[in-house]
Amino acid sequence: IPPDVLVQFIRWSIFFKPAAETRFLAFLSGVAISAHTQRSLVMQIAKNPEVVDTQDVMGQGVAGRSYVAAILHLLTTIATTSEARDMCAESFVTVARWVDLFEQCEADADAFGFVAIKYLDDVLLQHDDCVYKMDDALHVRLFGAVRRFSLCIRRHVHALAQLDMRDDKAATVLSNDVPMIKHVLPMLVTYFPKLNAALLGHEDVDEWLAAWFVWVFCAVSRATLTDAGVESALHLCMRWLDQLWKPTSDSSSLEQLFDEGCRRSARPFIGLSGIAEPFVMDFDKPFVELVNDVHAYRLYCASNNPTSAASSPAPPDAVVMPIVPLEDKLPPLHVDVVRKQSWLPSWGRAKKKRHTSAVVPSNGKSSKSSPRAFNMPSFGAYSSDDSSIVADFVQYVRDHRQTKSAIRNELSAMMQSIVCLEMLKHARFVKMSVVLLDVFTRTILSIEHDRKRRQMQLQLDHVGLTAVLVDLISHTDDVQVFDRCVWLGIAMLDGMNARVQERFHALLTQHAACLGKFKLHLDMLTHTDGTRKPRPVVCFSPKTTTTRTDEPATKYQSAARQFRFLQLLCEGHYGANQQCMLGDYPGGGPCPEAQVCVANYKLISAVNELLWRDTNDLTVTAVDLVRQLKASVVVMLLSLVERRVDHEIHRRLVQELNLEAIKANLIVVHDYFAATYHGQYDGNVACSRDAFLTMGFNLYILMQHLVEFEPSLLSTLVPADDVAYRTAYAFFDDRCARVEIVWPTTRDPAARPIGGDLVSIYFPLHPICVCLTDRAKRRLLDDVSRDANRLDDFYDKTHVAMLEMHHQCTLRGHAWMALLTQHLSQLKLAAFVWSVFLNGLIVVYNELDSRTPFAVQVVGYVHVALCAAIVAGHCINDVPLLLVAHRHNDHRTLRFDSSVEDTLDDVEAKVRAVSDDRLLPRRRGWFVLSVVLWDAKTMYHVSLLALAVGGAVLDMPLLFAFHVLDIVNQSTELRYISKAIVHPGKSLAHILILYMLSAYVFGFVGATYFSAYFEKDGHNGCTTLWACFLTSVDEGFKNNGGIGGYLVPSRRDAGDRLAYPRFVYDMLYYVGLVVILTNVAFGLIIDTFATLRTQHKEKQDDLKDRCFICSIDCYTFNRMTKGFEHHTRYEHN
C-alpha cells in the first residue's frame, strides 16, 4: 500500500470521526497485512494521534462504542512488534484508559467486549511495564473488568440448556463456545501470572470461581476439547483458579473436575423437559448457590454414568510458586557463591528448608518451570522472606565492581565489533544501520556533562566510528541513513572537539565523495518542489481545498542539520576543513569582473530613480520595505568601488549618479535619526543595528570615495548654504573614521603577500566608542609598546577598552551612576583638596588635650561623604571590569598576524573555558571578595574611607593626617617616583636582606670582641647578642661614620690591644654597608626614575610627532604631503 494512500485514509478517518464512521478504520485494519504496512501505520498514527483518541466518541452511544471497537481492532492488528506494542500501550490506549472504556461501555459478550479482550491479551499484557507499574486501585479495577466479562459464560450455559431441550440434539454440532475458547482463555493464561491476588475481595472471587466450576461441569467433555492447545490452556487456567480458590478437598478442585470432564465422552444433560434425570438447575441463580446442585448432580452422574477409562492427556507444565528459595532456582555456580560468602544475612541462611511446588502435576513428576513462573503473584506466607533473599542477591550482583567491569568490557567489545561491521554499508541492512546510528547519537546526547560527553566522543572516535560515518556518507544512497549519519556527526562534534575535527579532516581528504554527497543532497533539497510528489488521492479528499504535510518541515530540518554539521566541522575557524569545503579558492575580496559587469548593465539609472522615490504616500509597511531596498542599493554601490584602484567605475558613477539624490537621502536619513532617536547617538547601541541609519553612513562613505577620485566634487558635496544638509553632513562626518590598508594583489591565500595597493577604508564609529573615558584612553596609549609590533600589542590590549566602553554605555542608562563615574577624577581631586583644608583646620584650631572643635568635626564628616562617594564610584566603575578581567584572564587574547599560532586544541580549550561557567552561586560571593581584597586600588580607597570614618566617628584627628599622602596619586611626577621604588622592588629587597645579614655579622663580632666599646652614658648596648644586633643596625645606619661613630673611641696610643682590630671593624662597616649598599640602593632608584621619565617623554613625543597607525614621523608628512595634522585628522583618524 503506498504511504500516501494510508495518509489519506487516516485523514478521512479524522474527518469523519465526529460521525463515528468506522469504514476507513476497517479498511486500514484490512490492509495491515505486511510488516511494512503495519510499521507505516504505526508511524502515521504517532504523527496523528487524534485518530485513536477515544475521548470524543464515547458519548455517542452504540455508534461510539462501535468506533472504539474499530480503534482497538486496528491497534491490535498493527501492534505486531515489541516497539509497536510499547507505543500502543504507553501512548495510544493505556491500561487505565482501557479500564475506563470497559467500565463506560459495560462490555459484555458482544463485539466490543471480545475486541477489547483481544487488545488486552495481544498488546497490554505483552507489555510488562504497563501492568507492573499499575497502582493497587487500577489492579482491582482491571480484575473487575476481566471478571465481569468472564461471567458471560452464563449465556453459554443457558445456550447449552436450550440445546438439550431440542429434539435433534443428537445431530447438532458440538456446542463449543468459540469466542470463549479463542479469546478469553488465551487472555487468562497471559493475565494470571501478572495477577496480584492479595488485592482481591473474597465475595467477587467466590462468585467468579463458582461460575467457572459450573461452566466446567456443564460444558467440558472429550468431544469439546478437540484441540490440544485449547485443552492445555484450559487445564492451566484451572490450576490458576485452584490457587485462588484453595479447595479444601478433591471434590472442590477445578483441576479434578476438568480431569473428569476430559474422561467423559459427553457432557451432562441440563435440559428442563422430557428428562429422566432427577436434577433440575436454575441457571438464573447466583453461581455460588448453584455449586451445591452441581456437586449433587456430579455424584449422581458418577454413580449412574461411569466415565470412560481413557486416560487423560498429559497435563501442561505445573504451575509453580512465583518466588522459591534461592537454592532451588539459581545455577550451581550461584549456589556455591551463596554458601561460601558471608554477605548473605543470617536470617537468609537460616532458611535452608526447601519448598516444593505449590501444585504437583497430575502425573506425579516434577516438571521444568517456565519463565513465567517467576512473574506469578505471591500466594505463600513465606514468599516475602524468600523475595528479600533474592532481592539482596540481585542487588549484590548488580553493585559488584566485577559485574560493572564485565559489563563495561562487554559493551566496549560489542561497540568495537559494531562500528567495524562492513555490512552497514549494504542497502539490505538499512534498518539496522538506522537503529545503530540512532543508538550512538542518543548515547552521546544523553550525557549532560560537557567533559564526559567529550570523553565519549573521543572513545567512539577511537573505536572507529568516525571512519564508519564518513564511509557511510560516501557510499550510501538511502536518504534516511544519510540523515542519521549527519545527526550522529553533529553529536560527535557537539561542543567542539578538536581531535574529532582533525580526524574528520584526515578522512575527508581520503574520501572526496563525502562532501560531494552534501552538495548533491542540498541540490536535491533546493530543486525539490511539493508539486513533484505524486498525490493521486488528494482530489478525492472530502471538503478539503488545501492539504498540509510535514514534508517542508522535514526538508528544512534536514538542510539545517547538514549546515550545522558542516559548521561544526569548521568550529574554531579550523582552516583545513574550511579549505576542503571551499575547494578552488574563489578569490579574496570583490571580483573585478563582476563589478564591471554590474556597472555596465545600466543599473545606475534605476538607482537614481529609486533614490528619488518619495515615500509620503506609502503605508508604514511599504515605507519600511522601500527603506530596506534603498539601503541594499547603497551597499551595492559601495561594493562596486571596493578595492578599485583603476577608477573606471568611479568615473562612471561620477558621470551617471545623481548627486542631488544622494544629498537629499542624506538629509532624509538624518531627519529620521532625529525623529527616532531624538538626536541621541552617543551610547545608543540601537543605532548600530538600524539599517536605514546605516544607509546614511554608507552614503557619506560613497561620497568620500567619489571625492577622492574627483576632488572637484568637493564644492558640490561639501555643504555651504543649506542648513539641513550641513547639519546632516556634519553629523555623519563627525562619526565616521578612515584608515589606509595595504590590500594584497595576489588572490591565492597560500602565497605570501609581497606588495599590494594602498586602499582607503571608511567606517562608522560605533555608538559605544564615545563612552571611552579619557583615563582609559590615556592608559591604553601609555601601555602600548612603541616598537615595530605596536599594532599587535594595541589589539592585544583593546579588550580592556572594549569592556570599559560597554560598561560605560550601560552606566549611561542610569543618570546618577553616569554622573558619578564621569566626574570621578574631579571628585578625587576635590577630596584631596578638602583633606588639605581639613588638616589646616586641625593645625590651627585643634589642641592636643582639648576636644575637637565643632568646625573640624563638620569638615571631617564632609570628608567622609567625599570618600564614600569615591568608593561608590570606584565600585560602580572599576570593580565590575576587574571581575570580568579576572574571570577571563587567560582566554581573552586577540591575535592579529602574530608569530605564535594557536593550535586547534588551544582554540577548543579557550572556547570551552569561555562557555563553561565555573562560578556556582555559592562560590560567586567568595570570588568577588577575593578579587576585591587582592586589588590594591580598591583596598586603597577603602582604607581612605576607613581612616576618614575613624577620624570623624572616633574623634581621632590623627587619622585625617594620612589623607594628605594622596598627593602621590594626584601628581604625575610623584607617581613616577613611587614607580621608581616599586619597579626595582625585588632588587631593593635583596639589598635590604644583604644589609640585615651583614649587620647581624657585625653585631655578632661586636658582641664577641668589642662589647666594652658599646657602653655609653652608663648604658651598655651590647649586653646580649640580640641587643648588640639591634644596636648595630640602628646606630650604624644613623651615624655618618657607621657603627664607629656610636662606639667609644679607641686609644691606640694608650696601649689598647683591640685598637687596630677596632679600626678594621669600623672601616668595613662604614665602607661595606653605609657607602656601598646604601648608595647602590639609591642609584637603583635614581636610574629607574630616569628610565621611566625617558620612556614617558619618548611616548609623549611619539604621540605628538608620529602617526600611531603608520608610524611615519611628523617631519615626513609636513615635507611631502598636506601636513601631519591633516593626516591624523582626516586620513588616519
TrEMBL record:
Cellular localization per UniProt: Membrane
Domain of life: Eukaryota
Keywords noted in UniProt: Membrane, Transmembrane, Transmembrane helix
Domain Ion transport positions: 955-1095
One Pfam family in the UniProt entry: Ion_trans
GO terms of biological process kind: calcium ion transport
InterPro entries, alphabetized: Ion_trans_dom, Ryanodine_IP3_receptor
Major localization listed first in the record, in broad terms: membrane
Membrane topology per record: Multi-pass membrane protein
Single GO cellular component term: membrane
Transmembrane regions listed in the UniProt entry: 827-846, 858-885, 948-968, 988-1010, 1067-1090
Any one GO molecular function term: monoatomic ion channel activity
Database matches in PANTHER family: INOSITOL 1,4,5-TRISPHOSPHATE RECEPTOR-LIKE PROTEIN A, RYANODINE RECEPTOR AND IP3 RECEPTOR
Protein name: Ion transport domain-containing protein
Organism: Aphanomyces invadans
